[in-house]
């Protein structure tokens, strides 16, 4: 069964993902659905969050949009329309020309995302030479400015250094510089702060806000941390087991989270103003206990509000009846508005 | 398990150590505070490793000997000052003052010929290894960069090469050229090394293919050429270069065996250890020492290269990091 799409894509939509489904598995085996009918829209300048625990299909969603999934061993269905073109139908060459120029991506681990044997400057310049046809010297000069812009101190020196000579935060800044070098209209950030320590995380998020959000670049922010969402995203999609279980504008989601899973995620954010002895609510079990969406709600085995119908009928994604704003929900027995964690 | 399967497994195990090459700089490294780089930390461990020290010393002495051979050798390699002592009953001049190892059956100084032979032996070994490396780089890069069908075809060719007994293959190449010479020797040995290098490189290229930094580069639209030559190849070379050190030893031994079988350079005015060994076989009953010396040199030098190669591999293997 397919989820009813959110409101049809309006003309000012930059990226419109519809019923994106990714299956892994070799011939003969029953395929494993990592992403199952995911639909969402991104407007220019908007920041959209994809939130969920490890293994819920966040990275696979973004890799599918970027055309970066392995060539063999998977099946992608649905569409991802970017500025009128369905990215999923482009051939290798066309998609390659768009990557880095129209859409760019940054990854979780900044150290392993950089080539260890090539200097930072050459790596940034490579993108400029590739897409803007710049000469080496011009590209190096521009790289210096880019490093400066992402807040790397002493950029002329850092240009000549190798990834292992930079700190984790600086490496992620360098990767952001590379991603933004050709001023893409959409940036996908796959857990860009997970590998960094807390103070650096805040800096990187601020940098993204400054450079991406304020310059009108659209951003898909992938995270398992609702704290990141609270500071950055306009629109939030909560994923569980490859499906969207709740979608709402940020204020709406934080004011009245309805899905028990969303509530669980919210409950696991440490709060500075929380009482000392207040326990961090964690969701019992893990995605490893995941069941497919075929027989009832996949979250039911871990859900404190699960009732009989949850195990019998697979819920569909529908407009929440009590919400005022756009608020889609896939749940038989949601928390009442203003639900508690 | 067939010998061929064993050979393959060994190569693949080596290649697997390259899979982690991407995180090497992290492992032994403390960033910013003037920490250790990959090479730095490997060197620190090597310096304290007696196996490496022995291997490196032997190798260094051998290379120095080869370079300065004409200056070190007390006599010429072609003059035959001892010819007067060569008789039918006693064809090998004894060791004597000025000629500590005696002469050969043409009255030439054995010590000088041994010293001069080091140069030829090194040249054959190095050239054969370089040629094998070059061939392996081409095939391995092709397979590792394109993957898919190209990979399958290239690797089948490599498997065929790998399945031929190396000596037989070398013999075939040598006879193919009719007149054996130093060059047929080099070609023969390098052909045998190509599949080893190719398989090794392909293995580490494939693990680079699925690495984060290659994915990140692809996410920026970088084309296949730069992905291969800037992002994959340089990060895959480590185990291949270590293997080259080990192959040097094999090449020297292989050259010796081929020369011994008469497939080497027929002209003995520029001596080579394998060739000297080959010539010594007729006289082995009377004068075993003229076989002993070149054989001993070959063993010691091959041992030196092997010790050095093995300890290098150990030092650069991220799994051995403490
Ligand atoms: N190449 C692949 N082949 C088979 N299964 C895969 C492949 N890539 C991902 N998967 C599976 O798809 C599911 C979703 O993976 P994905 O990487 O999208 O998770 P994620 O939400 O990004 O998690 P994390 O927070 O850990 O990054 C996982 O169960 C994973 O095992
Ligand atoms: Mg992920």
From TrEMBL, chain A:
InterPro entries: AAA+_ATPase, ABC_Ni/Peptide_Import, ABC_transporter-like_ATP-bd, ABC_transporter-like_CS, Oligopep_ABC_C, P-loop_NTPase. Its main location: membrane. Keywords: ATP-binding, Cell membrane, Membrane, Nucleotide-binding, Transport. It is a peripheral membrane protein. GO terms for cellular component: plasma membrane. One of its GO terms (biological process) is peptide transport. Belongs to the ABC transporter superfamily. This is Dipeptide/oligopeptide/nickel ABC transporter ATP-binding protein.
């Amino acid at each position: 069964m397919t989820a009813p799409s959110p409101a049809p894509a309006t003309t000012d939509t930059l990226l419109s993902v519809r019923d994106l489904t990714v299956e892994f598995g070799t011939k003969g085996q029953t395929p494993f659905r990592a992403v199952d009918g995911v639909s969402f829209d991104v407007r220019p300048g908007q920041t959209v969050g994809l939130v969920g625990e490890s293994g819920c299909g966040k990275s696979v969603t973004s890799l599918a949009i970027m055309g970066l999934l392995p060539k063999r061993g998977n099946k992608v269905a649905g569409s991802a329309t970017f500025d009128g073109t369905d990215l999923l139908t482009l051939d290798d060459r066309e998609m390659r020309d768009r990557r880095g120029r129209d859409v760019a991506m940054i990854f979780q681990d900044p150290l392993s995302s950089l080539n260890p044997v090539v200097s930072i400057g050459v790596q940034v310049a490579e993108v400029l030479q590739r897409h803007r046809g710049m000469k080496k010297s011009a590209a190096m000069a521009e790289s210096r400015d880019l490093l400066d812009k992402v807040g790397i101190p002493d950029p002329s020196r850092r240009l000549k250094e190798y990834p292992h000579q930079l700190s984790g935060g600086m490496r992620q800044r360098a990767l952001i510089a590379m991603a933004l070098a050709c001023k893409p209209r959409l940036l996908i950030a796959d857990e860009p702060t997970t590998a960094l320590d807390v103070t650096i995380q805040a800096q990187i998020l601020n940098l993204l806000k400054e450079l991406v959000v304020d310059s009108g670049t659209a951003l898909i922010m992938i995270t398992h941390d609702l704290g990141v969402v609270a500071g950055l995203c306009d629109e939030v999609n909560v994923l569980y087991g490859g499906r969207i279980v709740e979608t709402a504008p940020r204020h709406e989601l934080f004011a009245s989270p309805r899905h028990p899973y969303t509530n669980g995620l919210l409950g696991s954010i440490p709060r500075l103003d929380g009482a000392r002895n207040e326990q961090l609510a964690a969701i019992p079990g893990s995605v490893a206990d995941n069941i497919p969406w075929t027989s009832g709600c996949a979250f039911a085995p871990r859900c404190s509000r699960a009732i009989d119908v949850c195990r019998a009928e697979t819920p569909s994604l529908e407009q929440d009846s009590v919400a005022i704003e756009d608020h889609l929900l896939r749940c038989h027995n949601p928390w009442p508005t203003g639900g508690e964690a | 398990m067939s010998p061929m399967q064993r050979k393959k497994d060994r190569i693949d195990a080596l290649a697997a150590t390259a899979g982690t090459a991407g995180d090497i700089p992290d492992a032994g490294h403390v960033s910013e505070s003037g920490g250790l780089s990959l090479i730095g930390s490997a060197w620190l461990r090597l310096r304290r490793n007696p196996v490496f020290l022995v291997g490196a010393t032997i190798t260094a002495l051998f290379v120095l000997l080869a370079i300065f051979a004409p200056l070190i050798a007390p006599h010429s390699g072609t003059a035959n000052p001892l010819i007067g002592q060569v008789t039918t009953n006693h064809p090998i001049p004894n060791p004597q003052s000025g000629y500590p190892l005696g002469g050969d059956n043409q009255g030439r100084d054995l010590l000088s010929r041994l010293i001069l032979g080091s140069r030829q032996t090194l040249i054959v070994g190095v050239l054969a290894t370089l040629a094998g490396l070059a061939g392996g780089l081409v095939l391995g890069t092709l397979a590792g960069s394109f993957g898919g069908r190209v990979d399958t075809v290239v690797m089948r060719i490599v498997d065929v090469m790998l399945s031929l007994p190396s000596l037989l293959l070398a013999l075939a190449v040598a006879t193919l050229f009719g007149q054996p010479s130093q060059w047929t020797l080099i070609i023969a040995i390098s052909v045998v090394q190509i599949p080893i290098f190719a398989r090794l490189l392909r293995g580490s290229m494939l693990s680079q293919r699925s690495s984060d930094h290659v994915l990140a580069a692809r996410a920026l639209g970088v084309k296949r050429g730069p992905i291969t030559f800037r992002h994959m190849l340089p990060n895959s070379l480590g185990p291949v270069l270590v293997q080259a050190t080990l192959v040097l030893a094999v090449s020297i031994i292989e050259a010796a065996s081929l020369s011994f079988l008469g497939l080497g350079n027929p002209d003995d005015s520029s001596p080579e250890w394998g060739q000297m060994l080959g010539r010594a076989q007729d006289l082995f009953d009377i004068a075993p020492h003229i076989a002993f010396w070149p054989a001993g040199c070959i063993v010691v030098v091959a041992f030196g290269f092997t010790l050095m190669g093995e300890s290098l591999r150990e030092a650069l293997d991220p799994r051995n990091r403490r």
